[in-house]
Amino acid sequence: MSVPLFIVDAFTDRAFTGNPAAVCPLEAPAPEAWMQRLAIEMNLSETVYLWPEPESDADFRIRWFTPGREVNLCGHATLAASHALYETGRAPENRPIRFASRSGPLAATRRAEGRIALDFPARPAPAGEIPAVLAPQLEGAETFLDGGEKLVAVFPAERDVADFAPDLVAIERCASEGLVVTAPSDDGATHFVSRFFAPAVGIAEDPVCGSAHCVLAPYWAGRLGLDSMTARQLSPRGGIVHVELRGDRVTLAGRAVTTLRGELAPAARPEAIAEPA
Predict the structure, then answer these.
(1) Mean pLDDT estimate for the chain
(2) Cβ pair 36, 50 in contact under 8 A
(3) Are residues 64 and 33 in the same domain?
(4) What are the C-alpha distances in Å from 231 to residues 90, 109, 210, 223?
(5) Is 139 among the catalytic positions?
(6) What is the DSSP string of 182-233?
(7) Contact in structure between 220 and 196 (CB atoms under 8 Å)
(8) Residue 81 in contact with residue 62, Cβ under 8 Å?
(9) What is the mean pLDDT of residues 43-65?
C-alpha cells in the first residue's frame, strides 16, 4: 500500500519560509523504530505521523518525531498536518479535526481568513533560577522561567534576541527540550519575539516553534494585559504565530504552504524495513 508524504511550511504564507515539517498520513499505526528512522531521513525539525482513530472521540492519532526522538507536543507540525488533511480532502473543511496525542486532546479548525487555528494546552511556567551553566549566555535576561521541558529567558529588547549566540552544549545539558529566548517586539505590528534552541532533541534552532508559545502566551498575556497577541519568531526563516489565551488553553493560529507532494518508494515503507537488531 502506498504511503503519501508531504512537506509543508507552517506559520507562513510563502514557500521556503516558516517551519517545514514532513507529514506522513498512514492507514494504521507503524513501528516506532520506522517512524524514528524516517524522521532521521527527513532531517527536518519534525516529522509528523497520523492515522484514523475510529474507536475514540478523535479523528486521528498524531505523533511527532524530531531527528533525535519523539516529543510530546509540536505546534508547527500539527498545523502542517492539518493543512495537508484539509488540502487533500482527508478531513472536511467545514468542521474541526480532532487529534488524540501524548499531550491530550487537540483540535484544528480552518478559519475563513485562511488561517488554521490549533487548540492546545496552555503551559504557564513559574519563575526559576538560571542554571549556572547557562548564566554566561543569559547575562542581561530580566526574567527566567522554568517550564520543565522548555526553559525561557526574557530579555529587555528585540535586539537581544536577534543577536543571541547560543551555547548549544550548555543548553543540551540543562533543558530536556530546549531554551526559548524572548523579548518585546519593536516593529509595531507584533507584540513579542522569540527564538528556540533544542539541541537535546536534535534541533540546533527551530525555525518557528508552536509549542513554545504554549509557555510564552501565558507569560506575555500577564505582562501585556492582553489575551490575543501576534508573535514573531526571529529565526533566519522567520514566521508569525497568532496566539489567544483562553484559561488553561491557548489558540495558535497561522497559515501553511505545501512545498512537496509525493509518496515513499516501496523500499522505504514500514513493511520493507526490518527492525534494528
Answers:
(1) 95
(2) no
(3) yes
(4) 30, 20, 10, 14
(5) no
(6) EEE--SSS-SEEEEEEEGGGTEEEESS-TTHHHHHHHHHHHHHT-SEEEEEE
(7) no
(8) yes
(9) 95
CATH number for the domain including 212? 3.10.310.10
Q: Which three cell numbers stand for residue 208?
A: 518557528
Same domain, 76 and 161: no
Beta carbons of 10 and 21 less than 8 angstroms apart: yes
**Secondary-structure breakdown of the chain: helix, strand, coil percentages, each rounded to the nearest 5:** 20, 40, 40
What pLDDT, in 10s, does the model give residues 86-102?
Answer: 999 999 999 999 999 99
What's the mean pLDDT in 26-41? 96
Grid coordinates of 17: 519560509
- The answer to whether residues 35 and 80 belong to one domain is yes
The residue-averaged pLDDT of 121-137 equals 96
In which residue are the cell numbers 511556567 written? 125
Task: Determine which one of 27, 41, 46, 55 is catalytic.
Answer: 46
Q: Are residues 14 and 34 in the same domain?
A: yes
- Please check whether residues 260 and 226 belong to one and the same domain: no
- Confidence band of 1 (pLDDT split at 50, 70, 90): confident
pLDDT for res 277:
47
Task: Using pLDDT thresholds of 50, 70 and 90, give the confidence band for residue 176.
Answer: confident
Neighbours of 129 (CB within 10 A): 8
Question: All 3 cell numbers of residue 110?
Answer: 480552518
Q: 60 pLDDT band (50/70/90 cuts)? A: very high
Per DSSP, which regions of the chain are E strands? 4-10, 19-25, 46-52, 60-65, 70-71, 97-101, 104-110, 116-121, 143-147, 150-154, 178-184, 192-198, 203-206, 228-233, 239-246, 249-254, 256-263
Cell numbers for 102: 501524548
